[in-house]
C-alpha cells in the first residue's frame, strides 16, 4: 500500500526519548519541553512558542487567551478538519462559515466582510493542505473591524507568506504534531505569537494558572487547563524539528514531480502556488473536474485497487449536525471542492517510483471508461 501520509522517523528520536527515560524526566516539566518551545519559535521566527498536548488544544487556548467566548462569533471556513470549529464551540462562541478560493482551497478573504456583525470577535483562517490564505487582506479587515486573527497553521508548517512563516502573521498561530503532519510527536501541538503578552498568558492558562507560593503551595487565580505536553514527546519533537528542512525539501520536490506528471491530464487541476507564498504541499491535492474520465469517488476506489491510499477533501462542517444552524455565506466553492477534491499520497518517504505509479493510474483512468 502507498499510504497517504505517514511519519518519517530517521533522526535522534530514540536518543532523546531514551535520555528522558534514563533521567526520569518523562512528565510535563523537563529540558526538552523548554528546548522544543525555544527551537520551534526560532524556526518559525516567532517571539515565543507554547507547547500543547495537541493542535486542537492550541486553538482552544488561542481563543481563550484572546478573550473569545460566550456570545462571540468567529469567522472560519467550512472546508476544514473539524478541530478549529469545535474549538470555537468549546469556548462558547459560534462559528460563522465563509467560503474558500477555488484555486488555493483556503478562506476567501473577499467574502469575509459581508459576514461581520457587532458580535464578530475573530477570524480563523485554516491553511488547509499547505497553501496559505491571503493574510494581508485578512489582517487589513481585522484591523479595520478591530478583530483578532488566529491562524490554524496545523497543515501548513513550513509554508511561507511573503517571506514570513505561516502561523506568525496573525495575532496567534497554531500547529499540530499529529502523526500525519510534517513533523510529529505522536500527538502534540504548538501555539506561537509575536506578542509576548499573549504567549505568556497562553502558557499560564495551559498550566492550570499555577502560581507557586513561597511555602511551595500552589495557588490558582483563574480557571486554567492542563494542556501540557510531556517531556518524552517534546524530546521526540526536538529530534523531528532537526530534520524539518530536509522534510520540506522532499515535499516540495515531490509536488513538483507530481505536477510534471499530472499537468497534462485532461480534467485534473493541479495545485497552485501563488507568487507571494511558498507552499509546503503537506498533502498534494488535485481537483477531479467534470471533464475527467470518472468521478472523484470512483477514482478513490480505483486507486485503492492498485494499493494507493487517497482521501476526498474535507466534508464541509456546515452540514454536520452540531453546526447545521450556524450562520454562513454562500458556500458553493466549498461544496464543489468537497465533491471533486482528492488528496494523493504525500509522505516524506514517497519515492518518484511511487509518484509514477499513482500518476500512471490517474492518466490511464482519465482516458475514460
Ligand atoms: C486543519 C486542522 N486543524 C486542527 C487540527 C488539530 O490537530 P490535532 O489533531 O493535533 O488536535 C488538525 C489535524 O489534526 C487539522 O488538520
Automatic annotation (TrEMBL):
Presence of the UniProt keyword Cell inner membrane in the record: no
CDD domains on file: AHBA_syn
One GO molecular-function entry: transaminase activity
Any single Pfam family the record assigns to this protein: DegT_DnrJ_EryC1
Gene3D superfamilies for the chain: Aspartate Aminotransferase, domain 1, Type I PLP-dependent aspartate aminotransferase-like (Major domain)
Keyword line: Aminotransferase, Pyridoxal phosphate, Transferase
Record family assignment: Belongs to the DegT/DnrJ/EryC1 family.
Protein known as: LegC family aminotransferase
Source organism phylogeny: Bacteria, Bacillati, Bacillota, Clostridia, Eubacteriales
